[in-house]
Amino acid sequence: MPQPDHVIKLPLPVLEALDEDIRKYFAKCEEKLGMVPNVLRAYTGNAAKFRTFTQFYNQLMLDEKSCGLSKLEREMISVTVSSANRCYYCLVAHGQAVRQLSDDPQLGEMIAMNYRAAKLDPRQRAMLDFAWKLTLTPQEIGDGDREQLRKVGFSDQDIFDICDVAAFFNYTNRMAHGLDMMPNPEYHGMSR
Predict the structure, then answer these.
(1) Per the CATH hierarchy, to which homologous superfamily does domain 71-189 belong?
(2) Fold of 15-62
(3) Which residues of the chain have pLDDT under 50?
(4) Which residues make up the CATH 1.20.1290.10 domain(s) of the chain?
(5) Is the pTM of this model over 0.85?
(6) Fewer CB within 10 Å, N or C, the chain?
(7) How far is residue 38 from each of residues 5, 57, 111, measured CA to CA in Å?
(8) Per residue in 64-112, pLDDT tens?
(9) Residue whose C-alpha is closest to residue 14's, from 46, 41, 54
(10) Domain with CATH 1.20.5.810 in the chain
(11) First to last CA, the chain
């Protein structure tokens, strides 16, 4: 049975009604990805928030210069956080990104279901343990947790970046839940 066919459970403007810069952004998505991710469509109800969201997402998840974490590590954090939050949209969309970046169709599934089932190196395990704890029991994060990250080779800037990615996906998971956001169906078959 296919998933529901809505983007979110609120009305969205039609493509033709969007500002020119947003339409151009969507055209770039079509060119590079073959689709416009539904999370972007979800933000078209407020053009200023769309611009803020896309700028922050692109800097956080795609910029190689301002982050010591690899793109794969950032996606692994996003899927781990989304697993803790049971966010269908992000598990599907970012699980696909883990499959693609790792060239391992099983890794995205393992992290989505239970990252502890995946054969990870100590650095990745510590990173995901930290992201999981920051998601479910943030008040319990302490100096020992940050020290554990340092012991496996993360710098203080890396620790900041781990927190930044985990915090961002806790935010987006809540937006996805609150709006009943559906992932693009194409994600299900990609990178298999």
Answers:
(1) AhpD-like (1.20.1290.10)
(2) 1.20.5
(3) none
(4) 71-189
(5) yes
(6) N
(7) 11, 14, 22
(8) 888 899 999 999 999 999 999 999 999 999 999 999 999 998 999 999 9
(9) 41
(10) 15-62
(11) 20
